[in-house]
UniProtKB/TrEMBL annotation:
UniProt biased composition (Polar residues): 71-81
Keyword terms, alphabetized: DNA recombination, DNA-binding, Transposable element, Transposition
UniProt name for this protein: Mutator family transposase
GO molecular-function terms, A-Z: DNA binding; transposase activity
Superkingdom, natural source: Bacteria
Region (Disordered): 55-85
Protein backbone atom coordinates (compact mmCIF):
# COMPACT_ATOMS: atom_id res chain seq x y z
CA UNK A 1 0.00 0.00 0.00
CA UNK A 2 1.39 3.43 -1.00
CA UNK A 3 2.27 5.73 1.89
CA UNK A 4 0.52 9.08 2.08
CA UNK A 5 3.71 11.11 1.98
CA UNK A 6 5.30 9.18 -0.90
CA UNK A 7 6.07 11.44 -3.84
CA UNK A 8 4.56 10.82 -7.28
CA UNK A 9 7.67 11.65 -9.31
CA UNK A 10 5.98 11.12 -12.68
CA UNK A 11 3.27 13.62 -11.78
CA UNK A 12 5.87 16.10 -10.52
CA UNK A 13 7.80 15.76 -13.77
CA UNK A 14 4.73 16.40 -15.95
CA UNK A 15 3.62 19.38 -13.86
CA UNK A 16 7.13 20.83 -13.80
CA UNK A 17 7.42 20.72 -17.60
CA UNK A 18 4.06 22.47 -17.98
CA UNK A 19 4.97 25.18 -15.49
CA UNK A 20 8.47 25.59 -16.91
CA UNK A 21 7.16 26.09 -20.45
CA UNK A 22 4.50 28.55 -19.34
CA UNK A 23 6.84 30.49 -17.01
CA UNK A 24 4.79 29.74 -13.90
CA UNK A 25 6.50 29.39 -10.48
CA UNK A 26 7.71 25.85 -9.87
CA UNK A 27 8.37 26.19 -6.14
CA UNK A 28 5.87 26.99 -3.40
CA UNK A 29 2.74 25.29 -2.16
CA UNK A 30 1.10 24.76 -5.56
CA UNK A 31 4.21 24.54 -7.74
CA UNK A 32 5.45 21.24 -9.12
CA UNK A 33 8.64 21.32 -7.06
CA UNK A 34 6.94 22.51 -3.88
CA UNK A 35 6.24 18.99 -2.56
CA UNK A 36 9.76 17.93 -3.56
CA UNK A 37 11.28 20.87 -1.70
CA UNK A 38 9.07 20.18 1.33
CA UNK A 39 10.07 16.50 1.27
CA UNK A 40 13.77 17.38 1.02
CA UNK A 41 13.66 19.94 3.85
CA UNK A 42 11.75 17.65 6.21
CA UNK A 43 14.10 14.75 5.44
CA UNK A 44 17.09 17.00 6.09
CA UNK A 45 15.61 18.22 9.37
CA UNK A 46 15.00 14.59 10.43
CA UNK A 47 18.60 13.73 9.57
CA UNK A 48 19.82 16.67 11.65
CA UNK A 49 17.71 15.48 14.58
CA UNK A 50 19.17 11.96 14.27
CA UNK A 51 22.67 13.43 14.47
CA UNK A 52 21.68 15.59 17.42
CA UNK A 53 20.23 12.67 19.41
CA UNK A 54 23.56 11.00 19.98
CA UNK A 55 24.01 8.15 22.43
CA UNK A 56 25.12 10.67 25.05
CA UNK A 57 21.95 12.74 24.52
CA UNK A 58 19.77 9.66 24.81
CA UNK A 59 21.50 8.56 28.01
CA UNK A 60 20.57 11.95 29.43
CA UNK A 61 16.93 11.22 28.63
CA UNK A 62 16.59 13.35 25.52
CA UNK A 63 14.15 11.97 22.93
CA UNK A 64 12.06 13.17 20.03
CA UNK A 65 9.05 15.12 21.21
CA UNK A 66 6.68 15.34 18.27
CA UNK A 67 6.80 17.86 15.45
CA UNK A 68 6.01 21.51 14.92
CA UNK A 69 4.95 23.05 11.62
CA UNK A 70 5.82 26.49 10.36
CA UNK A 71 5.34 28.51 7.22
CA UNK A 72 8.52 29.08 5.24
CA UNK A 73 8.57 31.60 2.41
CA UNK A 74 10.48 30.87 -0.78
CA UNK A 75 11.11 33.32 -3.61
CA UNK A 76 7.87 32.08 -5.27
CA UNK A 77 5.42 31.23 -2.53
CA UNK A 78 4.99 29.70 0.95
CA UNK A 79 5.34 26.08 1.98
CA UNK A 80 4.57 24.39 5.28
CA UNK A 81 7.45 22.43 6.79
CA UNK A 82 7.25 20.05 9.77
CA UNK A 83 10.29 20.01 12.05
CA UNK A 84 11.01 17.54 14.84
CA UNK A 85 11.37 18.71 18.46
CA UNK A 86 13.33 17.14 21.29
CA UNK A 87 12.42 16.99 24.95
CA UNK A 88 15.30 19.14 26.16
CA UNK A 89 14.70 21.78 23.44
CA UNK A 90 18.44 21.74 22.69
CA UNK A 91 18.04 20.92 18.98
CA UNK A 92 19.28 23.77 16.76
CA UNK A 93 18.49 22.96 13.11
CA UNK A 94 20.78 24.47 10.49
CA UNK A 95 19.00 24.08 7.17
CA UNK A 96 16.05 26.12 8.48
CA UNK A 97 17.03 27.75 11.72
CA UNK A 98 14.71 28.47 14.60
CA UNK A 99 12.57 31.54 13.98
CA UNK A 100 13.72 31.61 10.35
CA UNK A 101 10.70 32.14 8.12
CA UNK A 102 12.32 32.97 4.77
CA UNK A 103 14.13 30.33 2.73
CA UNK A 104 16.52 32.78 1.12
CA UNK A 105 20.17 31.88 1.30
CA UNK A 106 22.21 34.46 3.22
CA UNK A 107 19.31 36.89 3.53
CA UNK A 108 20.90 38.77 6.41
CA UNK A 109 24.23 39.34 4.60
CA UNK A 110 22.23 40.43 1.53
CA UNK A 111 20.40 43.04 3.57
CA UNK A 112 23.69 44.32 4.98
CA UNK A 113 25.20 44.33 1.49
CA UNK A 114 22.28 46.40 0.17
CA UNK A 115 22.70 48.79 3.08
CA UNK A 116 26.43 48.97 2.37
CA UNK A 117 25.68 49.91 -1.25
CA UNK A 118 23.79 52.95 -0.02
CA UNK A 119 20.20 51.71 -0.15
CA UNK A 120 17.97 53.25 2.48
CA UNK A 121 16.10 51.01 4.94
CA UNK A 122 12.88 52.00 3.16
CA UNK A 123 14.31 50.88 -0.20
CA UNK A 124 15.53 47.60 1.27
CA UNK A 125 12.11 46.95 2.77
CA UNK A 126 10.45 47.60 -0.60
CA UNK A 127 12.94 45.29 -2.33
CA UNK A 128 12.24 42.45 0.10
CA UNK A 129 8.52 42.98 -0.42
CA UNK A 130 8.98 42.63 -4.19
CA UNK A 131 11.30 39.62 -3.98
CA UNK A 132 9.72 37.64 -1.13
CA UNK A 133 6.36 39.30 -0.53
CA UNK A 134 7.72 39.86 2.95
CA UNK A 135 7.06 42.86 5.18
CA UNK A 136 10.07 43.86 7.30
CA UNK A 137 9.70 47.02 9.33
CA UNK A 138 12.17 49.89 9.41
CA UNK A 139 12.86 49.13 13.10
CA UNK A 140 13.64 45.47 12.33
CA UNK A 141 16.08 46.41 9.58
CA UNK A 142 17.70 49.02 11.82
CA UNK A 143 18.11 46.39 14.55
CA UNK A 144 19.70 44.06 12.00
CA UNK A 145 22.30 46.67 11.00
CA UNK A 146 23.04 47.22 14.70
CA UNK A 147 24.20 43.60 14.87
CA UNK A 148 27.38 44.55 13.02
CA UNK A 149 28.48 47.09 15.67
CA UNK A 150 30.65 44.49 17.54
CA UNK A 151 32.09 43.49 14.16
CA UNK A 152 32.99 47.12 13.40
CA UNK A 153 34.63 47.56 16.81
CA UNK A 154 36.59 44.32 16.43
CA UNK A 155 37.76 45.42 12.96
CA UNK A 156 38.84 48.81 14.33
CA UNK A 157 40.99 47.12 17.00
CA UNK A 158 42.42 44.28 14.88
CA UNK A 159 46.21 43.72 14.82
CA UNK A 160 48.08 45.17 11.83
CA UNK A 161 51.25 44.20 9.98
CA UNK A 162 54.60 45.40 11.24
CA UNK A 163 55.47 47.25 8.01
CA UNK A 164 53.51 49.21 5.40
CA UNK A 165 55.50 50.45 2.41
CA UNK A 166 53.28 53.36 1.41
CA UNK A 167 50.56 54.88 3.56
CA UNK A 168 48.07 57.55 2.52
CA UNK A 169 46.36 59.55 5.27
CA UNK A 170 43.41 61.82 4.55
CA UNK A 171 40.07 62.90 6.01
CA UNK A 172 36.48 63.14 4.76
CA UNK A 173 33.78 65.34 6.28
CA UNK A 174 30.17 64.50 7.18
CA UNK A 175 27.22 65.93 9.05
CA UNK A 176 26.30 64.06 12.25
CA UNK A 177 23.52 64.83 14.72
CA UNK A 178 24.86 65.38 18.21
CA UNK A 179 22.95 66.54 21.29
CA UNK A 180 20.02 67.85 19.26
CA UNK A 181 22.06 69.70 16.66
CA UNK A 182 23.91 68.83 13.45
CA UNK A 183 27.69 69.20 13.50
CA UNK A 184 30.45 68.56 11.01
CA UNK A 185 32.66 65.55 11.76
CA UNK A 186 35.98 64.52 10.23
CA UNK A 187 36.44 60.86 9.28
CA UNK A 188 40.15 59.98 9.30
CA UNK A 189 41.07 57.20 6.87
CA UNK A 190 44.42 55.44 6.55
CA UNK A 191 45.06 53.37 3.43
CA UNK A 192 48.24 51.31 3.27
CA UNK A 193 50.18 49.08 0.90
CA UNK A 194 51.74 46.08 2.64
CA UNK A 195 55.08 44.65 1.61
CA UNK A 196 53.34 42.23 -0.76
CA UNK A 197 51.69 45.10 -2.65
CA UNK A 198 48.14 44.67 -1.36
CA UNK A 199 45.87 47.55 -0.37
CA UNK A 200 44.46 47.60 3.14
CA UNK A 201 42.32 50.13 4.96
CA UNK A 202 44.20 50.29 8.26
CA UNK A 203 41.68 52.32 10.19
CA UNK A 204 38.73 54.71 10.24
CA UNK A 205 38.34 57.27 13.03
CA UNK A 206 35.75 60.00 13.69
CA UNK A 207 36.55 63.32 15.34
CA UNK A 208 35.10 66.83 15.66
CA UNK A 209 37.45 68.32 13.06
CA UNK A 210 40.64 67.58 11.19
CA UNK A 211 43.83 68.54 12.99
CA UNK A 212 47.39 67.39 13.62
CA UNK A 213 46.64 66.65 17.28
CA UNK A 214 44.00 64.06 16.45
CA UNK A 215 46.18 62.64 13.68
CA UNK A 216 48.81 62.08 16.38
CA UNK A 217 46.33 59.95 18.36
CA UNK A 218 45.46 58.02 15.16
CA UNK A 219 49.14 57.29 14.46
CA UNK A 220 49.66 56.21 18.06
CA UNK A 221 46.74 53.79 17.73
CA UNK A 222 48.29 52.29 14.57
CA UNK A 223 51.54 51.82 16.48
CA UNK A 224 49.76 50.14 19.39
CA UNK A 225 48.05 47.76 16.95
CA UNK A 226 51.40 46.56 15.64
CA UNK A 227 52.65 49.00 12.99
CA UNK A 228 56.35 49.49 13.71
CA UNK A 229 57.38 51.18 10.48
CA UNK A 230 56.04 52.92 7.37
CA UNK A 231 58.45 53.75 4.56
CA UNK A 232 56.62 56.64 2.87
CA UNK A 233 53.65 58.58 4.27
CA UNK A 234 51.57 60.60 1.78
CA UNK A 235 49.57 63.49 3.27
CA UNK A 236 47.88 66.78 2.47
CA UNK A 237 49.44 70.06 3.59
CA UNK A 238 47.78 70.26 7.01
CA UNK A 239 49.93 72.23 9.43
CA UNK A 240 51.79 70.03 11.91
CA UNK A 241 50.84 66.80 10.14
CA UNK A 242 54.38 65.85 9.04
CA UNK A 243 55.69 66.55 12.54
CA UNK A 244 53.01 64.29 14.03
CA UNK A 245 54.11 61.46 11.74
CA UNK A 246 57.80 61.96 12.55
CA UNK A 247 57.09 61.86 16.29
CA UNK A 248 55.59 58.35 16.04
CA UNK A 249 57.41 56.95 12.98
CA UNK A 250 60.71 58.91 12.92
CA UNK A 251 62.15 56.99 9.95
CA UNK A 252 59.13 57.54 7.68
CA UNK A 253 59.66 59.79 4.67
CA UNK A 254 56.83 62.28 4.24
CA UNK A 255 55.47 63.38 0.87
CA UNK A 256 52.98 66.25 0.80
CA UNK A 257 50.41 66.09 -1.97
CA UNK A 258 51.46 68.15 -5.00
CA UNK A 259 47.85 68.42 -6.18
CA UNK A 260 46.76 69.92 -2.84
CA UNK A 261 49.62 72.44 -3.04
CA UNK A 262 48.62 73.42 -6.59
CA UNK A 263 44.96 73.84 -5.61
CA UNK A 264 45.88 75.98 -2.62
CA UNK A 265 48.21 78.10 -4.77
CA UNK A 266 45.80 78.75 -7.62
CA UNK A 267 43.17 80.05 -5.17
CA UNK A 268 45.42 83.05 -4.54
CA UNK A 269 46.32 83.74 -8.17
CA UNK A 270 44.18 86.19 -10.12
CA UNK A 271 41.86 84.55 -12.64
CA UNK A 272 43.50 86.38 -15.58
CA UNK A 273 46.94 84.98 -14.56
CA UNK A 274 45.95 81.42 -13.66
CA UNK A 275 46.47 79.84 -17.08
CA UNK A 276 49.94 81.37 -17.53
CA UNK A 277 50.93 80.68 -13.91
CA UNK A 278 50.00 77.01 -14.27
CA UNK A 279 52.01 76.78 -17.49
CA UNK A 280 55.06 78.10 -15.64
CA UNK A 281 54.44 75.91 -12.57
CA UNK A 282 54.18 72.63 -14.46
CA UNK A 283 57.95 72.37 -15.22
CA UNK A 284 58.56 72.57 -11.44
CA UNK A 285 56.65 69.47 -10.35
CA UNK A 286 57.23 67.57 -13.61
CA UNK A 287 60.98 68.06 -13.63
CA UNK A 288 63.21 65.02 -14.11
CA UNK A 289 65.22 65.71 -10.96
CA UNK A 290 65.03 67.69 -7.75
CA UNK A 291 67.89 69.94 -8.87
CA UNK A 292 66.10 70.80 -12.10
CA UNK A 293 62.83 71.34 -10.21
CA UNK A 294 64.56 73.80 -7.85
CA UNK A 295 65.96 75.71 -10.82
CA UNK A 296 62.46 75.97 -12.33
CA UNK A 297 61.10 77.07 -8.94
CA UNK A 298 63.62 79.94 -8.85
CA UNK A 299 62.53 80.97 -12.34
CA UNK A 300 58.90 80.88 -11.19
CA UNK A 301 59.76 83.08 -8.22
CA UNK A 302 61.63 85.59 -10.39
CA UNK A 303 58.59 85.97 -12.64
CA UNK A 304 55.71 85.83 -10.13
CA UNK A 305 57.29 86.42 -6.71
CA UNK A 306 56.52 90.11 -6.49
CA UNK A 307 52.92 89.73 -7.62
CA UNK A 308 52.11 86.62 -5.59
CA UNK A 309 54.71 86.47 -2.76
CA UNK A 310 52.59 84.33 -0.38
CA UNK A 311 52.11 81.64 -3.05
CA UNK A 312 55.84 81.34 -3.74
CA UNK A 313 56.67 81.49 -0.01
CA UNK A 314 54.36 78.50 0.50
CA UNK A 315 56.25 76.47 -2.12
CA UNK A 316 59.60 77.35 -0.61
CA UNK A 317 58.45 76.71 2.97
CA UNK A 318 57.00 73.26 2.13
CA UNK A 319 59.59 72.29 -0.47
CA UNK A 320 61.28 69.55 1.60
CA UNK A 321 57.97 67.70 1.99
CA UNK A 322 56.81 68.45 -1.56
CA UNK A 323 60.01 67.25 -3.25
CA UNK A 324 60.49 63.86 -1.54
CA UNK A 325 59.24 61.97 -4.61
CA UNK A 326 62.05 63.21 -6.90
CA UNK A 327 64.54 60.70 -5.43
CA UNK A 328 62.48 57.74 -6.67
CA UNK A 329 61.86 56.13 -10.04
CA UNK A 330 58.80 57.02 -12.10
CA UNK A 331 56.56 54.12 -10.92
CA UNK A 332 57.08 55.08 -7.25
CA UNK A 333 56.71 58.79 -8.04
CA UNK A 334 53.28 58.16 -9.54
CA UNK A 335 52.17 56.39 -6.37
CA UNK A 336 53.31 58.98 -3.86
CA UNK A 337 53.29 62.49 -5.38
CA UNK A 338 49.56 62.85 -4.71
CA UNK A 339 46.92 61.46 -2.35
CA UNK A 340 44.81 60.41 -5.37
CA UNK A 341 44.88 56.77 -4.23
CA UNK A 342 42.98 57.44 -1.02
CA UNK A 343 40.85 60.12 -2.67
CA UNK A 344 39.75 57.45 -5.16
CA UNK A 345 38.63 55.36 -2.21
CA UNK A 346 36.79 58.39 -0.81
CA UNK A 347 34.95 58.88 -4.11
CA UNK A 348 33.70 55.29 -3.97
CA UNK A 349 32.53 55.74 -0.37
CA UNK A 350 30.74 58.99 -1.24
CA UNK A 351 28.75 57.17 -3.94
CA UNK A 352 27.24 55.19 -1.07
CA UNK A 353 26.87 58.01 1.46
CA UNK A 354 25.73 60.79 -0.88
CA UNK A 355 22.04 60.05 -0.30
CA UNK A 356 22.41 60.57 3.46
CA UNK A 357 21.77 64.13 4.53
CA UNK A 358 23.13 63.53 8.01
CA UNK A 359 23.87 60.62 10.31
CA UNK A 360 22.15 60.06 13.68
CA UNK A 361 25.42 59.13 15.39
CA UNK A 362 29.13 58.51 14.88
CA UNK A 363 28.52 54.76 14.90
CA UNK A 364 25.83 55.05 12.19
CA UNK A 365 28.44 56.80 10.04
CA UNK A 366 31.12 54.22 10.86
CA UNK A 367 28.76 51.32 10.09
CA UNK A 368 28.04 52.58 6.59
CA UNK A 369 31.69 53.36 5.81
CA UNK A 370 32.69 49.92 7.12
CA UNK A 371 30.07 48.13 4.99
CA UNK A 372 30.93 50.16 1.88
CA UNK A 373 34.61 49.33 2.48
CA UNK A 374 33.68 45.63 2.65
CA UNK A 375 32.21 45.92 -0.86
CA UNK A 376 35.03 48.09 -2.25
CA UNK A 377 37.82 45.89 -0.86
CA UNK A 378 36.49 42.82 -2.70
CA UNK A 379 38.48 44.14 -5.67
CA UNK A 380 41.71 44.44 -3.67
CA UNK A 381 42.72 40.83 -4.22
CA UNK A 382 45.72 41.47 -6.47
CA UNK A 383 48.90 43.39 -5.65
CA UNK A 384 49.54 46.72 -7.34
CA UNK A 385 50.67 46.52 -10.97
CA UNK A 386 54.41 45.75 -11.36
CA UNK A 387 54.76 45.44 -7.59
CA UNK A 388 57.67 42.98 -7.78
CA UNK A 389 59.76 45.65 -9.52
CA UNK A 390 58.59 48.38 -7.13
CA UNK A 391 59.34 46.19 -4.10
CA UNK A 392 62.89 45.58 -5.32
CA UNK A 393 63.46 49.32 -5.72
CA UNK A 394 62.10 49.99 -2.23
CA UNK A 395 64.37 47.29 -0.79
CA UNK A 396 67.36 49.07 -2.35
CA UNK A 397 66.29 52.43 -0.97
CA UNK A 398 65.33 51.26 2.52
CA UNK A 399 67.63 48.26 3.04
CA UNK A 400 66.75 46.00 5.96
CA UNK A 401 63.52 47.91 6.63
CA UNK A 402 62.07 46.40 3.41
CA UNK A 403 63.04 42.74 3.22
CA UNK A 404 62.02 40.69 0.20
CA UNK A 405 60.74 37.10 0.37
CA UNK A 406 63.57 35.61 -1.68
CA UNK A 407 64.17 31.88 -1.47
Amino acid sequence: MEEKNELDLDKIKRQFLEEFRSGKPTFGKDGALGPLLKHFLEAALDAEMDLHLSQEQRQQGNRRNGKVSKQVRTSDSTIEVASSRDRSASFEPQIIKKRETVLAENLEPRILSMYGLGMSLRDISAHLKDMYDMDISHDTLAALTEKIVPQVKEWQARPLDRLYCIVWLDAMHYKVRQEGRTVSKAVYNILGIDRHGHKELLGVYVSESEGATFWLSVLTDLQQRGVADMLIACIDNLKGFAEAISSVFPQAEVQSCIVHQIRNSIKYVGSKDQKEFMRDLKPVYRAESKELAELRLLELEEKWGRKYPKVLESWQRNWDKLSTYFKYTEPIRKLIYTTNTIEGFHRQVRKVTKTKGGFPSDMALLKLIYLSHQNISKKWVMPLANWSQTAQQLSIWFGDRMQLDLK
